[in-house]
Every structure is written in structure tokens, then in C-alpha cells.
Amino acid sequence: MIKRTRPTPKTIYIAALAAFLSTLLAACSFQQYASKAINPVANAAKFERKDPAGEQFHQYLLNNGYTADHLPLQQWGMDELTYCALFFHPSLDVARAQWRAAESAELTAAERTAPSANGRFAHSNRANQDISPFAFGLSIDISIETANKRNIRIENARHLSQAAKLEIAQTAWQLRNQVVQSLGEYQFNQQQIKLLLDEVSRRQEVVAIYQKRVSLGVASNVELSSANLQLQTATTELNARQQSKLVLMSKLASNLGLPFSKVETMNLLSEPLNQSAQQNPVMPADLQTTALLNRLDLRIALERYAAAEAKLKLEIAKQYPDLVINPGYAYEFGDRIWSLGLSGLLTFLNKNKVAIAEATQLRAVEAAQFEVLQAKVISEANIANAELSQAKQTLVNQQELFKQQQRNTQRMQRKFATGEIDRLELAYAKLEDNAAEKNVALANFQLITSLNQLENTLQQPLSKTKFNSNIEDLSFNKSAD
Length: 481
Known about the structure:
The relative contact order is 0.13. The chain has a domain at 79-108 and 152-319 and 353-460: Outer membrane efflux proteins (OEP) (Up-down Bundle), CATH 1.20.1600. The chain has helices at residues 9-27, 40-48, 55-63, 78-88, 90-110, 149-216, 221-256, 260-264, 275-279, 287-294, 296-317, 353-418, 423-458, 471-474; strands at 116-123, 134-144, 323-332, 335-344. It starts with 8 loop residues before the first helix and ends in a 7-residue tail after the last helix. The protein contains 14 helices and four strands.
């Protein structure tokens, strides 16, 4: 005959606790920590492997409206370089990573407080033989948030996430602006080199004429020395511009996020394609309204203000205490006890006044910063528009002077053909023509710079290009791995 033993309360408690813990552990899958060290050497090699002639970038261009017969690109203008910066520059990866972190914060804000389990076990010395020597208990704490705190946290995180998302587009626009500026400086440098080469050639001709005249005794050494000094000045300036070409290409490579060796092989557009579009850009009807509606930093500031408001709402909601319900079961020295507890912080005593005051001040700071930024944008739009108008008028004046000088040079050429003037006078007339053309090139560069400044102020392209003005969509495309 098998003798059956009755399980003791201790055995029952241990079995119940073990079953509870095993069920809890089985329901949870723990992630393991994986180390991911930064390898500077590998990062440098990865940077050197970036290639604008690679298949990944070609596919990116195909996805953005380019056709296969245009690839590989034979010439790099503003649109192509902008797409290149959006694809390769690492600063966009940083902005995207920050946005993903903000999105994760949204998920964290939506999480509810997990219930917690409490257990205890005790054993007496059995001083009283009438009671069981064992006591154990198990209870669960269930937290209940009040005053809609969870939804307010989600609202705050959502506004911060949207601000981080707009930061990506803001970074993309800044990259575009830097590329446009770098390309404009490079193109102006190329024009200067071309005009300086012509000037050096003319001045060499003048020096040769003076040298011949000095040898014949019909000119003084003073005139020859003056001509040589002017030639040296022009040659020095030409050398400086030729050396600046490498600096400007290095600057462009930095703004593109590419190695200099790759940019060096790119056939960059030496002159703007559409001069008329730059002199007559498509101007919006109301500059201030356009700037206020398009500026990404204003939209970011609005999101941050909304996040500050949500923060204030959360602190006000914290005046109302959260509740914790804790049902439990206890076996105490032979007695079986069921219980239901209720607890909460006594926030009614101070009503969270300090945190509310701090959040109120932070909201006021965000509001003041937005007003300052808005006033700055309006002022910048007006100044940029005035500078553009001034640059356009300056270019018109310089073009008119250049035309007058060209007519004068043509008249001098006709006189030279009839023998009324000599070669030296014709050479100086051509130098004056060269100087007028340099003034036109400078005025045109100032116009392009003013136009770029106005575009950057409005954050809206003012000339028709292949580039999609909705930079928010382009900036989310994944960059090169």
C-alpha cells in the first residue's frame, strides 16, 4: 500500500513561485549585447570607395527622373551635384539617425507601465505549536496612469520626432546651398582664369612693342618698366586664380562628401547654363509669405514650441496622482488571506508647482525664440531681395559699358586697318575691352550670389531646373552605404 503524503504549504509556495517565474521567463526573449566598435581605418577606406560613377548612384539618379541614355553623366551641373551631395554626404546619415532615435522615443512614450510581482517567504521557530511555521505571500502591482498622461507623452514625443524629421530636410537644403555656392565660385574662377589669360597675352604684346621701340630709341625705359609691372601684376593674379582652382575643387568635394580624387575627374560645368533665368528669376508674389511658409527652421521651431506645450500639459497632469492596484494572496502560519491594495503619491500637497513653473518658462522661451526667428526671416528676405535688385542693376550697367567698349574697340580696329593708329593703341583698346568684360563677369557672379542668397532665404528655387524643389522627399532617400 502506497502512503500518500500531503504537500506542505512551503512545497505549494515553492511550486507556485517556480511555475510563475518559469512562465514569466518563457514569455520574455532577452536581447544580447553586441559590441560595435568604430574602426577609423575601415571608415576611411569606405570614404575613398565612394564613386559618383558607381551603379548605386546611377540607380539613385534613375529613381529621380534621369534616363539611362544620360548615364554615365558627361557633365556635372548644379542639379547633378545636388543629387550627388544628397546621396553621398554623411551629414544626412547623422540627421536620419537622429530622426530614428526620435521615432524610438515615440514608441517609448507609448509604453505602459508594466505590472510588477512581489513575493515573500517566512518561517517561524514554532514557539506556538498550534500554528503552521510557514508564511508566504504573492502580490501584483498594476499601475494606472491618470489625467491622460500617456497620450500627452506621446504628443510630446511626436512633435520632437517631427522636428527631427524636418532637420533632415534642413540639412539637405543646407547641402544644396553649399553646393550651389561652391559651383558658382568655381565657375567664376574659371571665367577669371580665361580673362586673365587673355589679359596676360595682351600685356605681353604691349611689352614686346615697347621693347622694340626702346631698342629703336622711340620709347623710354620708364614706359617699358611700367608695361612690365602691369604684366607681372596680371601674371601674379593669374597664378593665384589657377592655384585657387584646387582650393575651390577641394571645397566642392567636401560639400559633396566625396574624395578629392573623384571630384578631380568630374567634368564640371564651367559656366551657368541659363544666364537669362538668373537675370530674370521666377519671383514669388509675396516674398515674406513665401519665406514664412517654406522655411524649414520656422517649421522646426513650431514643432519645438508644440513639444514645449505638451511638456507643460504633462506637468499639469502630474498634479493628479497615478494609482497602483495590488491584489495579492498570502498564507500566514495556517491562515489563507486574499487582499486588494490601493496606493498613490500624495501629489495634492505641492501640486507639482515647481515643475509646472519650469515648463511654463520653457514654453515662453520657445515662443520668444520663434518670434525672433520669424522677424529674422522677414528681414533677411527683404535684404536679399534688395541685394538682388541692386546686383541686377549693376549687371545691366556693366553690360552696357561693355557694349560701349566693344563698339570702341571695333572702331579702333577699323582705324588700325586704315593706318590711323598703331598696334600699341589697338592693344590698349583690347585691354580696356578685357577690363570691361571682367567687370561684367564680376557683376554676373554677384548677381548669382545674390540669387542664391535669396533662394536660401526663401528655401525655394527661383529658376527652373531638373531639381525637385520638394527637398523633404529627396532627403529621405537612403544615402550610400
